[in-house]
Amino acid sequence: MTGPDHVADGTPDSTATGEVFSPPLMPAADPVADADRLAARLAIVRDRIGRVIFGQDAVINEVLVALLSGGHALLVGAPGLGKTLLVETLGIVLGLDARRVQFTPDLMPADITGSEILEEDGSGRRAFRFVKGPVFCQLLMADEINRASPRTQSALLQAMQEHRVAVAGFDQPLPSPFHVLATQNPIEQEGTYPLPEAQLDRFLLQIDLTYPEAEAERAMLLATTGTPRAPAEPVLAPGELLAAQALVRMLPVGETVLDAILALVRGARPETATDEKVRRSLAWGPGPRAAQALMLAVRARALLDGRLAPSLDDVAALAHPVLRHRMALSFAARAEGVALATIIDGLVRRLA
């Protein structure tokens, strides 16, 4: 069996955008200069996305943080808030080969990963051929992931963590870069299944979408109900995103920020929390993967803002997206009406 086709790296198509961005981002020779150039390019990326997605600037920033960190993101919000459009726009602007899977109760694991089929050639010889599923892409949109059964949800686990799938005893590597942006409706809505804890932990960030402000909703109405809007335009290419991810990992992290990350994550575990109320309120807390996610995410957020090192403000801003899907309230805390957001806010205040 052969693996998936190699994905070519390159610069954005200037004929599609009407602009030429040069030189392309490459692995960092001068990290400071490369960081400055990347910040300028990312400002263009945010502008292009913002022309399509109204009133969700914080969400756009958090999604870009997840992608620059090399991770996956879970988008949670009520229907109609633009989750699907956001992912489609990201695929275009970042120049990624994007696929979409609509998760439904009857979706099977093979519908995602692919399967073998038996074929017969003209001479009568039979052979199995692997037909790749939609997971063989660079940006996979798992739409309404919690409407599928837990068995199908789990089919993404190996792909998300190892960037490969095993079919019929053979490993099939996925393209690079590879990111999953999953959308999820609130668990309270009818026809949804909670995601397994092991799969939730694979998402670098959980990004909650809320209703837009009045002015943003007004602008959206005027822009979307008149003449057709201009389509999103590509800015980056896959190779440039990989170079940006490598640059993120080169940014230095000060001891103060490192200590804050450890204090935040360890303080959110019932076994190591120093606060008695936190210990009573939590059934389980974030593991080491949460600290790794926060370490990468604060670097990416700093770079997105044009800074060369993260600060405590970055830790505080990303505490909720990193931690909220990696913690669970105890039965007693749920009965008392305790909210995870309140616990995380308390942990963040102790960092100051």
Spell out the key features of this protein.
352 residues, Rossmann fold, Helicase, Ruva Protein, domain 3, 2 domains, five-stranded parallel sheet, 16 helices, globular, disordered N terminus, ATP-binding, MoxR family ATPase
Structure report:
β3 and β4 form a beta hairpin. The longest helix is centred in the first third of the chain and has 20 residues, at 31-50. The chain has two domains: 25-105 and 134-241, Rossmann fold, CATH 3.40.50; 251-352, Magnesium chelatase subunit I, C-Terminal domain (Helicase, Ruva Protein, domain 3). Helix content is 43%, strand content 14%. It contains 16 helices and eleven strands. It has helices at 14-17, 31-50, 57-68, 83-93, 110-113, 150-153, 157-162, 197-200, 214-224, 238-248, 255-267, 276-281, 288-304, 312-323, 331-336, 340-349; strands at 73-76, 98-102, 114-120, 126-132, 139-143, 164-167, 170-173, 179-184, 205-208, 282-284, 328-329. It is globular. A five-stranded parallel sheet has the order 2-5-8-1-9. The chain has a two-stranded antiparallel sheet with strand order 3-4. A two-stranded antiparallel sheet has the order 6-7. α3 packs across α13 (288-304), α11 (255-267) packs parallel to α14 (312-323) and α14 (312-323) runs antiparallel to α16 (340-349). The model is unreliable at 1-28 (pLDDT under 50). Pfam families: AAA_3, AAA_lid_2. This is MoxR family ATPase.
